Amino acid sequence: MKTLQPLRGFRDIYPKEKGVQRFIYETVQKVADELGYESYDGPVVEPMDLYINKTSEELLNRQTFQIKDKKDQTLVLRPEMTPTLARMIATKAGELTLPLKLFNFGLRFRYEAPQKGRSREFNQADFDILGGEQLITDAEILKTLVELFLSLGSTQRDFKILISSRDLLNKILIREGLSEKTIPSLLKIIDDVDKISDKELDSRLNKLGLTKEDYSRIISSKIKPKDSEYFDKLLDLLGQYGIRDFIDINLSVVRGLDYYTDLVFEVKDLGEIKRSLGGGGRYKNLVSEYNSKVNVSGVGFAVSDVMIEEFLREKNLLPEISTKKTQVLVTVFPDLLNESVNAVKKLRENDISSELYLESDKKLDKQLKYADKNKIPYVLLIGNEEKEKNVVKLKNMKERTEETLTLNEVVKKLS
């Protein structure tokens, strides 16, 4: 083995890092549960055909990990979840009760340049609503996104959700004189503008017969009253939800995935992070691409654990995380192993998370330091004196207090 390091863009996740990941997962799962989403999952490997003409060409051709099976079929490590979900809905649409609110948290893979807040292997939380009335479901998905970031401990000072509409933007661009053939290429430029140099921007605009002045004029186009009827209704409903102040309209938001049709949105940090924290949109036709007999519209968003972690660190919002869930450490001393084993057995039988110190020749100080380092709140001590009196000492590590109790009294206190 030439190196002990993982592949570039992949992660060794030690207990400390896993504790952060677990905190993020438990937070998003709690939001999913509270807002009525059901969990689902799908294969981590999909055939290439699943994505052809259903996702962005750049994502498929430049950012996917592709492998060949024994039949020479091209397989893809899933870069996103929405095509898998759409296929699943198309397969069993007649057996499912719509509308559906669905949640997934799992591995995704993208072959892109690793950097802060971005890796080639990451976990992503996807929230989707299939079916239902567009106005209500759009409002509900935006409420979910706001609730997620609030549950992570952030406030209105920390983030903003920018919303736009692919359909509305298409109408505005046609009104500005662009041909329908040119629009997809311009939308791609708008989505990439923060990632490319001025020189590349000029080059790509020139290929469309546009100048920077044209571009500036187009993206600063104002929404006319007849265009904004849907937005007016949506913003009114978001006001009823109590989240209107978290939302701004910004027509430069287009999102890069080709299947978005109407509402698109992304979360922006109001601090130092320049990239989007996550986002999504409405996809009207994706499910019918897999089954023409099924006409189900959906709306959803995704956020990655890597991006959330960067956001939490930038805002100093990560709580003190214990990598152990142990409630009690039971000490072990020479000739008292049986007593310690009986004690830990009794605690576990009563559903009290506990562990035995695994070396009997270590002094008490060493065992207490182990509990401190691992943030174990209680230590149960059994020495010769305690054995003779048939009691134990229970030490509260946070308050640095100690009391002498019977083992039954410890169980009653900690249950």
List the helices and strands and how they pair.
Elements: H1 15-34, E1 38-39, E2 45-47, H2 57-62, E3 65-68, E4 74-77, H3 82-92, E5 100-109, E6 121-130, H4 134-151, E7 159-165, H5 166-175, H6 183-192, H7 198-207, H8 212-219, H9 229-241, E8 247-249, E9 263-269, E10 276-283, H10 286-290, E11 298-304, H11 305-314, E12 328-330, H12 337-349, E13 354-356, H13 364-373, E14 378-381, H14 384-389, E15 392-396, E16 401-405, H15 407-414
Parallel strand pairs: 1-5, 7-8, 12-13, 12-14
Antiparallel strand pairs: 2-4, 3-4, 5-6, 6-11, 7-9, 9-10, 10-11, 14-15, 15-16
Brief account:
The chain is α+β, with helices and mostly antiparallel strands. The protein has helices at 15-34, 57-62, 82-92, 134-151, 166-175, 183-192, 198-207, 212-219, 229-241, 286-290, 305-314, 337-349, 364-373, 384-389, 407-414, and strands spanning 38-39, 45-47, 65-68, 74-77, 100-109, 121-130, 159-165, 247-249, 263-269, 276-283, 298-304, 328-330, 354-356, 378-381, 392-396, 401-405.
